[in-house]
Structures are given as structure tokens and as C-alpha cells.
């Protein structure tokens, strides 16, 4: 069955934003966006072309000196003319002084022959801007394929889906969305990149930086920018950042803070529920060393001053006069703080990356390369405190290690629904991704029947999202019972707060419960593997085994949901997706048949 490639919903959303932008005055942002360029001067920008990690790691005085030197060059090569940001093709890259995590970026540019440029996302190259003509001289670099691609990618596609450039002298428009490491680009109203990971050019063995600046590249010829607008997309906590109904965390290795060894921690997760009395603040100290005036990083929740992350000591003074350095802050009104009520703080510290949520509202998301390497956790000022801590080892993070792909075949071609059957009208094939349509969905099955296999895939949940993976399922019947279903579910949604363990994400629905606490934040990509070999089933989510069970053993005394599951006896059947009206996005569907002759 073949269906037409569908991108209309995203394009309609872009058209609405574009219309709002067109109806505004020059450099005045649409609703929900902020202007990165004010149309008058270079306020809010700095200049540099380095790996942002190296810039962060510089001693403060050295960093300040470099940026001052770079600014002299910025003023030579960047200017503002008639509300347009103009570069002569030389000088440092113009860089936002502020770092950003997940966002949508709108901008317009026009350039001249033989110039090229690019947009760096979180300080990493890049959404490419080319001279696409033969005279531009870069056909060997695939410039003729068009602008908008992720040029520096090596493992995944780096050219745009279509050629969409306008002639020299005309304004081109970008809408760039970055969530996690996944980029979608609309260029002159055409989809040119769709949910494509951006590789970390500066450190290819590791993931994209979690936060970083927007940079406008300079490279060989004049380029002009205008209407540069950005909308931040708040990050939800990962599933590990929520508490169960009984107030305990999800996932393994958690200990009550009073019983945990917190004397020499570097990377960790922490939950704390607490109340504040009056206007007195509470502090959580971590990587603390040296007693009362020693070094420490401090997260302060203050009814008067908001949320502050600070470095208590950046010098060698052992006195009360040693002034803390503020790393990041959030106003109280934007923090989700509840006065005279119980509050829930979730803190995640991974190397230089520090994140905090207060009552599931993001309040801190920053990279900080200075301060102590490790140390104790301590606190003060909180009442009715209940805290849990875990050492954030590799196997507790939401990421899948690289795996051997020998023997796997792609079962979705990234273009249409060839090879699939069932409710094909409830799903849409877009470039590289498969979507269950909101309000529709239904059951979509891989046409070939399977017996034993390994299924690897990636998926992205919407808020409250619900779907499932049908296993050895017959066509035209209730797959969860006539076959089996491995649940796909946003466990963090309030509407699922009271579900049974055998209904949680990854569970073999009604039969085998799954461990919780390993879903990535809503809107971010998850990686999953399902192994079905005879009666043995194993489910791995983001690198963590959440089910490893024998189905016959699990059901020998009846199923936990007390319902009939005749599909447990199936020797073969179909693999598929079982939609429930939510937009769930899938990509990289790979299958390996086991025990095949």
C-alpha cells in the first residue's frame, strides 16, 4: 500500500508564523518570539568562532580578553544598515551572548555570488547557506543541492531534501526547530530537513551540546540578516524527574539522602520535597568541599530573589567575604514556586551540565566549566524535607549505547507506506519519519508475518501520548489480546498517574510490568529495542533493560490483568503500531529476524 508523502500540518504552522511575521514591522517579533537582533545595534551579541566548550573552559580573565579583542574585529566587519545586520564576509562569527537549549529560530537573509555562510545551533555547525550556482565553484561540496542542509553531518544526511534557494538579491527565510539533537528546517516555505540529528562537529564521539549560542557565520562574501527571532521551547523533565504517588522516585539506585553516601559525588540526580517559611531561602549545596567557607556550587530557592545557581568560591579566600558568583537565575514568578506549600525540586548534574526543575517547571539549564569537580551534597533552610539521591552512572541516563547493526534491515523507507498494511489513512509518511495522526491512528502493521525477531526503533511522544507495538498480532483483531502489545506511553502525564505497572511504557500490556524512570523528556527522541525469541521477551529503553521475562512463566498462574490473552500462544504474527489518537513520531525502524533458515 502506498500513500502520498504528507507534510501539510507542519507547513501550515509555518505559514501561520510567516503571515504573522510579514504583517509585523521590520524586526518586530511574532507573538511568543523574542528579537535577537533589535534592528538598531549589536546589543545582545558577542563575537567568536571557537568551539564553545573551549571558550567556557577558559579562565575568566582570558575569556574576557579574547572577547574584547574579538569585539574590535566585530565592529570592523559587522554593521547595521536600515534595520539589516550586515557582514562583509570576514571577522568573527556574530554570537548570541545567551545560550539556548530547545528552540525555534526564524530569520531572513540575502547574500551575493560566491559567498557562503551558515547558522550555528548551540555553537555547532551548521544549517548551511550556499551559492548554489555552478559559478559559485562548490559543486564538489554538493552546493548545487541547495541551502538549508546540515552540511557538517557525516553519519546522517547532510544535504537538503529539495533545492529551495531564491536568486541573489532576494530575501530567503528560515524556520529552524531544534529539540534535543533533532533539527527540522523549513526554507522558503519548503521542508528541507526533517527530524534529522545534528552531529557534534567539535566532538563527534559525543552528543550535541545541550545548550549553546546561536551563531551567524562569516565566510567569503557579504551577507545580510533581518527579522531574527527566537522562541524557547521549555524542556520537560525526563521520567526520572517525577515522583510516584507514594513520593518515591522512579528508576534504580535511589537512596534517601540521609542514608546515601553523598561525600564525593560528581554526577547525580536529586529529588527534594520541602516547604519554606516566610521569606527565608533554602539552599542545596553540591560538589561541596572545605567546610563552611569552602568551595561549592549552590542552588538557592528564595521567595525574595527567585532561583539562583552560584559558585560559592572562585578564589582562595577562606573568609565570609568571599563573594559567590551567579551562574544562572530564574525569577520567582517564572519558577513554579508555591508559597507556604510543599514544593518539589529535581536537580540533575552531569559533568558541566546543570539542570533543575521546580514543580516540573524548568528553572536552570546551563553549562558551567569551573568550580569544584566533585564533593558532598548538603542543604539548609528547608522544612519538611524529604530528599533522594542517586549517583548518575552511565546506565541511568536516557541514552542507548551504540549497537551492532549486522543483520538488521530497514522496514520503513522514509518516503511512503510501502510494505505496510492496516489503518494506512491513520498514519503519515514524511521524509525520514512515520507519524500516527492526531485523532486517528489505528493499527498499522508490517505486511510480513514474523516469528522471532529483534525490533529497533526511535520514537517521540507528545504530551499524554499513547500508542503501542503489536507483537505476533493477527490482522483485524484486538492486537493487545489476540496478539501482544508492548505499551508506548507518556508515563509522566497526570492522566496516567494511577495506571497499573503492567500498563506503563514498555510493559507487555496486561502481562509483564516494565521498570519506570527511563523515558526521555516529552518531545525528545527515545531509542528502544524489543527482542522476542520464543517465549522470551526483552525490552531495552534508552540503554536500560526494562523487561527481561519469560511469557509462559509470567502467565502460568493467570495474567496480572485477569483477562484472557490467547495471543500468548501465537507462534507468528504481525509487527505493528497500535494508535490511540495521539501524534507519535517514529524513525529508524530496523528489524532482524532470528532463527531464520
How is this structure best described in words?
This protein has 597 residues and is mostly beta strands. It has three domains: 225 residues, Sandwich (Jelly Rolls), CATH 2.60.120; 139 residues, Sandwich (Jelly Rolls); 185 residues, Exo-inulinase, domain 1 (Jelly Rolls), CATH 2.60.120.560. The strands form six sheets. Strands 1, 3, 4, 6, 9, 10, 11 and 13 form an eight-stranded antiparallel β-sheet that branches. Strands 25, 27, 28, 30, 33, 34, 35 and 37 form an eight-stranded antiparallel β-sheet that branches. The N terminus is likely disordered.
What labels describe this entry?
single chain; eight-stranded antiparallel beta sheet; Jelly Rolls; 5 helices; 597 residues; mainly beta
* Main beta-sheet annotation: 8 strands, antiparallel
Number of domains: 3
- What would you report as the Rg, rounded to the nearest angstrom? 26 Å
Q: Distance N terminus to C terminus?
A: 28 Å
CATH fold type of the largest domain: Jelly Rolls
Question: How many DSSP E strands?
Answer: 37
CATH superfamily of the largest domain: Exo-inulinase, domain 1
CATH first level of the largest domain: Mainly Beta
Average pLDDT: 91
Helix and strand content put the structural class at mainly beta
Shape: globular
Number of helices: 5
Helix content: under 10%
Low-confidence stretches: 1-9
Q: Under the CATH scheme, which architecture of the largest domain would be assigned?
A: Sandwich
In terms of DSSP E residues, the strand content is: 35-45%
Amino acid at each position: 500500500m502506498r500513500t502520498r508523502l504528507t507534510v501539510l500540518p507542519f507547513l501550515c504552522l509555518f505559514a501561520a508564523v510567516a503571515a504573522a511575521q510579514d504583517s509585523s514591522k521590520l524586526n518586530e517579533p511574532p507573538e511568543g518570539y523574542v528579537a535577537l537582533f533589535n534592528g538598531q545595534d549589536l546589543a545582545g551579541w558577542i563575537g567568536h568562532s571557537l568551539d564553545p566548550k573551549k571558550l567556557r573552559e577558559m579562565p575568566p580573565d582570558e575569556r574576557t580578553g579574547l572577547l574584547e579583542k574579538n569585539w574590535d574585529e566585530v565592529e570592523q566587519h559587522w554593521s547595521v544598515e536600515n534595520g539589516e545586520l550586515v557582514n562583509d564576509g570576514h571577522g568573527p562569527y556574530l554570537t548570541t551572548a545567551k545560550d539556548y537549549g530547545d528552540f525555534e529560530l526564524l530569520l531572513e537573509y540575502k547574500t551575493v555570488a560566491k559567498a557562503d555562510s551558515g547558522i550555528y545551533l548551540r555553537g555547532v555547525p551548521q544549517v548551511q547557506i550556499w551559492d548554489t550556482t555552478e559559478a559559485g565553484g562548490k559543486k564538489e561540496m554538493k552546493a548545487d543541492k541547495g541551502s538549508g542542509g546540515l552540511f557538517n553531518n557525516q553519519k546522517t544526511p547532510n544535504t537538503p531534501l529539495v533545492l529551495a534557494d531564491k536568486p541573489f538579491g532576494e530575501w530567503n527565510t528560515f524556520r529552524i526547530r531544534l529539540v534535543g539533537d533533532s533539527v527540522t528546517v523549513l526554507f522558503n516555505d519548503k521542508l528541507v530537513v526533517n527530524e534529522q540529528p545534528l552531529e557534534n562537529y567539535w566532538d563527534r564521539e559525543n552528543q550535541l551540546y545541550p545548550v549553546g549560542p546561536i551563531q551567524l557565520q562569516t565566510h567569503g562574501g557579504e551577507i545580510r540578516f533581518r527579522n531574527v527571532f527566537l522562541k524557547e521551547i521549555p524542556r520537560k523533565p525526563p521520567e526520572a524527574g517525577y515522583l510516584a504517588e507514594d513520593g518515591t522516585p522512579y528508576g534504580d539506585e535511589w537512596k534517601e539522602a540521609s542514608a546515601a553516601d553523598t561525600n564525593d559525588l560528581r554526577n547525580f540526580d536529586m529529588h527534594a520535597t520541602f516547604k519554606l517559611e516566610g521569606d527565608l531561602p533554602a539552599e542545596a549545596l553540591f560538589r561541596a568541599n572545605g567546610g563552611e567557607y569552602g568551595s561549592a556550587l549552590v542552588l538557592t530557592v528564595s521567595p525574595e530573589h527567585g532561583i539562583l545557581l552560584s559558585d560559592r568560591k572562585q578564589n582562595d579566600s577562606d573568609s565570609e567575604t568571599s563573594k559567590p558568583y551567579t551562574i544562572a537565575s530564574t525569577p520567582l514568578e517564572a519558577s513554579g514556586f508555591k508559597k507556604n506549600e510543599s514544593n518539589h525540586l529535581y536537580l540533575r548534574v552531569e559533568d558541566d551540565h546543570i539542570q533543575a526543575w521546580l514543580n516540573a517547571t524548568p528553572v536552570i539549564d546551563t553549562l558551567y566549566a569551573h568550580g569544584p569537580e566533585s564533593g558532598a551534597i548538603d542543604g539548609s533552610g528547608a522544612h519538611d524535607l524529604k530528599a533522594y539521591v542517586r549517583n548518575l552512572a552511565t546506565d541511568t541516563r536516557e541514552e542507548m549505547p551504540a549497537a551492532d547493526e549486522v543483520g538488521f534491515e530497514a522496514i520503513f523507507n522514509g518516503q511512503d507506506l510501502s510494505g505496510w498494511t492496516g489503518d494506512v489513512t491513520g498514519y503519515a509518511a514524511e521524509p525520514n519519519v512515520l507519524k500516527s495522526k492526531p485523532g486517528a491512528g489505528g493499527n498499522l502493521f508490517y505486511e510480513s508475518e514474523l516469528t522471532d525477531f529483534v525490533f529497533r526503533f526511535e520514537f517521540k511522544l507528545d504530551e499524554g501520548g499513547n500508542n503501542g507495538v503489536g507483537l505476533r498480532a493477527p490482522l483485524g483483531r484486538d492486537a493487545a489480546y489476540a496478539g501482544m502489545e508492548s505499551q508506548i506511553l507518556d508515563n509522566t502525564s497526570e492522566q496516567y498517574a494511577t495506571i497499573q505497572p503492567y500498563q506503563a511504557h514498555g510493559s507487555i500490556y496486561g502481562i509483564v510490568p516494565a521498570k519506570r524512570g527511563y523515558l526521555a523528556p516529552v518531545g525528545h527522541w527515545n531509542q528502544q529495542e524489543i527482542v522476542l525469541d520464543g517465549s522470551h521477551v526483552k525490552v531495552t529503553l534508552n540503554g536500560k533493560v526494562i523487561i527481561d521475562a519469560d511469557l509462559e512463566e509470567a502467565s502460568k498462574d493467570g495474567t496480572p490483568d485477569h483477562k484472557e490473552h490467547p495471543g500468548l500462544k501465537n507462534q507468528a504474527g504481525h509487527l505493528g503500531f497500535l494508535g490511540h489518537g495521539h501524534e507519535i513520531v517514529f524513525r529508524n525502524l530496523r528489524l532482524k529476524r532470528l532463527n531464520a533458515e
